[in-house]
Design brief:
This protein has 18 helices and 23 strands. By secondary structure, it is an alpha+beta fold. It has a six-stranded antiparallel sheet, with helices on both faces. It has a five-stranded antiparallel sheet with strand order 8-7-11-10-9. Helix 6 (208-214) packs antiparallel against helix 7 and helix 15 runs antiparallel to helix 16 (517-531). The termini are far apart.
Length: 598
């Protein structure tokens, strides 16, 4: 298995995904496993206390008997609803944690080789419904996309021989090191001046943390590692802003001491560290010019759009990546206004932020880093969602120099978030809202009804012939019938109304803005008329019927629960009268009152 690096941010995002899956599915544990040599290791897990697994926990990959071993071998989904009922699984190691149910998917690396698995486990029998299986598959796809992106980033290390950026760095008479933003700051690249001054890295030194830990002089009051940690903390706390220079004594390969100035800056996922040998050059009067050179070096090769504004809010710099992301050239941006880079609604938000920033600058208040999700404009006038970060840059005298902004394309993240919300609020088969979303919409409808003095109808319905279709023609025909009924509901209501699948063959309609009781009757009659018409599934002419119970707000109930329960009861009364009938809840109440008065 090849060595891999995954950023802490990605691991945290994966952990949040597991938390969400475990919460939605109601299981005890969620894991992301990865292949580490001959072992299968827990890379991350859900953070609640229900999981008995530990991050870093390992098992031999070969012949371990683990659920995940089979997933990796076969590279396909595995579902075990109850291991205790299976001769194949009733001795697997996960049973030590009483995890008898399992659902897992293989994860492939960017080159198609097995990376590991994503899985959920439960301590009770669990058949895992289709919506959870689909959700897990979507999550697996997201993880594999993350690995592709991470791999592209890691490949930056291999660009040293042919990258123009590295050729430029190699000709700068300053020792420069590029490293990943990871716990130990693993080294991506060092320029030729660094190697000439401080020597080649040995095989046991893979990170800046290792290097500064071992490079110390005996007479130093503070260790170089301690000084470096302070510099890194300052750089990480203020990304995009160069740190104040610090001095240290570094040991060269000939064991001589070199008085060295260290400056660092964080740009996106990279820590750039500059080491200036003060024994060979005179002290620079304007240390900011060094960091400015370093900034420009990485700005031009960043994966985000980086730009600067002067005191008059005029663009003074735009990174070349703007063309890849927006279609605009650098010259087009510099000749235009920053306003043209964003949607009008987003520009209004940005203006308020800029006003606050310049107000703080004029009042000599401390600067803040501002982050905002905005809509960014492409050259073809299409829009995409971006994360905007803005920060003020000052010189050594505390004078404002410019405003630095970073625009990151988060379209995929927003798309995934929307997909996740949709999966959590919609029925996986019919794509209708589920019980949770329909209850939320009903609650909103009740509030709007009070404001505009309109009726709301709640229609609870059940399919009468669904079981017969399922038994005679199979589950695929039954699923097709459910989809057909969902289409009937959509065609029978207005866009402002809601049709939902509550579960099984039970559905709910929330009709809003009704003026009279008759409006609800017309909707019910349209549904029953349409559903009674024959339809074809797999060459068979089939027919459905429904029973509908109806409640009206505000006359029948005062809250969501009352209205749905009364509509459910009315539906059963309608079913007693035969197929394709509807019944109002107040009619049942009147009938009961009439019987009591006899």
């Amino acid at each position: 298995m090849k060595n891999f690096i995954i950023s802490d941010k990605i691991i945290t995002e994966w952990q949040e995904i597991l938390n969400l899956i475990v919460s939605i599915s109601g299981v005890k544990a969620g894991l992301i496993m990865h292949i580490n040599g001959d072992y299968l290791e827990v890379l991350t897990k859900n953070t609640n206390k229900t999981s008995p697994y530990l991050i870093g926990e390992k098992n031999h990959l070969k012949d371990s008997g683990l659920y995940c071993e089979t997933v990796i071998k076969k590279q396909e989904m595995l579902l075990v609803d109850n291991a205790l009922k299976s001769d194949k699984w009733n001795h697997n190691p996960d049973l030590q944690y009483n995890m008898i149910a399992y659902l897992g998917f293989p994860i492939r690396d960017s080159d198609g080789t097995p990376f590991g698995t994503i899985c959920i486990l439960d301590n009770k029998e669990n058949h895992f419904p289709p919506n959870i299986i689909k959700l897990m598959e979507k999550m697996r796809d997201l993880l594999e996309k993350n690995l592709i992106i991470e791999n592209k980033f890691i490949n930056m290390k291999h660009l040293a021989d042919n990258s123009l950026m590295h050729k430029v760095i190699d000709n700068i008479p300053t020792s420069i090191c590029l490293s990943l933003l990871s716990p130990k700051y693993r080294i991506l690249y060092v320029n030729q001046h660094f190697k000439q001054t401080f020597g080649e890295f040995t095989s046991d030194i893979m990170s800046l943390s290792d290097w500064f830990s071992k490079n110390n002089s005996d007479d130093a009051e503070q260790t170089n590692y301690y000084i470096w940690k302070k510099v890194v903390h300052e750089a990480v706390s203020n990304p995009g802003t160069p740190t104040n220079p610090c001095e240290m004594n570094l040991v060269s390969p000939d064991f001589s001491l070199r008085r060295t100035l260290i400056i660092a800056v964080v740009l996106d996922k990279i820590l750039l560290t500059s080491l200036i040998d003060l024994s060979r050059i005179t002290y620079l009067q304007n240390d900011f010019s060094i960091s400015e050179t370093n900034n420009e070096l990485l700005y031009d090769n960043s994966l985000d759009v980086i730009w600067t504004l002067n005191k008059n809010s005029n663009l003074t710099y735009v990174s070349p990546t703007v063309r890849n992301i927006t279609g605009y050239t650098v010259d087009e941006c510099l000749k235009s206004s920053i306003k043209n880079m964003f949607a009008e609604s987003s520009w209004e938000i940005i203006q308020k932020i800029l006003t606050e920033i310049y107000s703080n600058i004029n009042a000599n208040k401390s600067a803040h880093v501002y982050r905002q999700e905005v809509q960014v404009k492409r050259k073809d006038n299409s829009l995409f969602w971006g994360e905007l970060t803005m920060n003020s840059v000052y010189d050594s005298n505390g004078e404002f120099i410019e405003l630095v902004g970073v625009t990151r394309d988060i379209s995929m993240r927003r798309k995934f978030e929307n997909q996740l919300i949709h999966l959590a609020t919609h029925d996986i088969l019919t794509d209708l809202p589920n019980a949770r979303l329909s209850s939320e919409r009903l609650s909103t409808a009740l509030s709007m009804s009070k404001r505009y003095n309109r009726l709301v109808a709640v229609m609870f319905m059940d399919l009468n012939l669904f079981k017969k279709i399922n038994d005679n023609y199979g589950h695929s025909a039954g699923n097709a019938a459910l989809k057909h009924f969902a289409a009937v509901l959509r065609s029978s209501i207005c866009e402002t109304d809601t049709a939902a699948r509550i579960g099984g063959d039970e559905f709910l309609v929330v009709a809003v803005n009704l003026q009279t009781r008759n409006s609800a009757e017309k909707i019910a009659e349209k549904i029953l008329k349409t559903i009674s018409e024959p339809f074809i599934i797999d060459g068979h002419y089939l027919k459905l019927s429904a029973s509908i119970g109806i409640t009206l707000y505000p006359s029948d109930g005062k809250n969501v629960e009352q209205l749905i329960n009364l509509a459910d009861s009315a539906m059963y009364e309608a079913k007693k009268q035969g197929h394709n009938k509807y019944k109002f809840a107040d009619e049942i109440h009147k009938q009961r009152q009439s019987l009591l008065s006899i």
